[in-house]
Amino acid sequence: MKKYEKDQMQKESTLKNEIQDLKCRSMRDNLLFHMVAEERDENCEQKVLKLIEDKLNIPNASNDIRIQRIGAYNAAKTRPIVDKFAFYPDRDRIRQAARQVKDGSIGVSEQFPREIMEKRRKFIPAMLKAREEGKEASSGSTNFSSIRVSIETVSRTVVRMC
Fold it and tell me: What CATH number is associated with residue 89?
């Protein structure tokens, strides 16, 4: 009976990992736009395309598949807008351009499954602490799948998330 339980737990773990991988893959072409003013019954597509053209200085960026707000409308909160791109290079070009905007008027980030975001939140304090100590610490790869600290640190462990 214990062997059966162990096998079932292993299968369940494998399935969870596969589902998480599929979620990551389905979201890899998405960007989230934060702090974009929201009105009831708005046209998100026009709003995002205007933002990309005006703030990021990228004209004719209309290779999007779908643009929509996430969640139910709440007048007290501004929901992020998710933008699914048809071509990864377009998504990456917009993400890189958004990094150059320093006025804090908008935020652009990659979209990840909730489970991944919860795991990553646990590692942010370690990254910030390493930076405070003068060590080079970053989110690792472009999709924030790990936290890396420079070779001079005590631990050279890279923790993979996605």
Answer: 3.30.70.1820
